[in-house]
Amino acid sequence: MTVRDPKDIAEPVAPERRNFLKGAAAGGVVAAATAQVAQAVVSPAQAQTPAVQPWWPSRWGPDDQAGASNHITPAKVLEAAKWIRDGKIHPIGRMSESAMPKFGDRAFTLRIPGNPTGGPFGANKLIYNDEFLATEIGQTGTQFDGLAHIGLQVGRDGDTNDMVYYNGIRGAALGGANGVKKLGIENVKPIFTRGHLVDVMAHRGAMMDAGQEVTMADVRGALARQNMNENDVQPGDAVFFHTGWSSLWMRNNERYASGEPGPGLEVARWLIEKQIVVMGGDSWGVECVPNPDRNLAFPVHAELLTKNGIFIHENLQFDSLLADRKYQFVYVFAPVPIKGATGSPGGPIAIT
To answer: How many structural domains is the chain composed of?
Structure first.
């Protein structure tokens, strides 16, 4: 099949992205969640099964705020380091700029105050420039979703005591005008682990379209094409998906932001069983939007982040890795430790 050029594809009429959330609420997802959640204590093993409610306490204990980054132990780092063969560094993040596609009403505005910002100082007439950045710093551009980013309303709408996040933390204990009081990005441990790239676009033969779901058949087919298999993915690893959607970045932003292809709940549950640390991909949410079940809003986010403490790395690009046919590598990312932030910007890298 011929890979389509995004410039040649007619742009569909798409709803504003916030409508995905509104539609799901209208469809009764909140009521369904309410019916499922009970207050009985379950074992950590049970808490990791998506079908079992509640999803807390975490496998790492009732006080944990680090989530799946707990997998990154000295032993895991040493094991991952063995996969560095040629020492080549592949940047997999994107450049952040005001013109990039952004979710909903989010903004990215950079200003250099003054020209220069300060000076001259001293006999050598030193001058300097600063920057002023106004943005949702952890939720624009290449972004790493933290555990305070996504929760579920399990009772009355608007009641923060009935808003539940990772490890059973209630919204009433989380919220704060100057940053979240729990589950802030500063709790996430730096990540150095083995990464696996699943090239679903190559398996399918063309860029996937918005609303198309990456299934386990896609995953297995792509892995087989890459001479890999499911057993390659071990606890604490990171798994990334290439759908081709990234080819729209800065070329057709409106279409890029109107929806996306990506993993559905079938793949999410496989990733949970594999006990990965991070799922990432070449789209803005790294899940199928709109979801095949129109009553659900971003269910993969809820399963991974909220219920299992697995992080999501969004708006990545894999051009360099794909050009070199490198599907296994070391993934390195240290979230910017902004106290109380719900996510992090940064420059993730893959080392082969």
So the answer is: 1
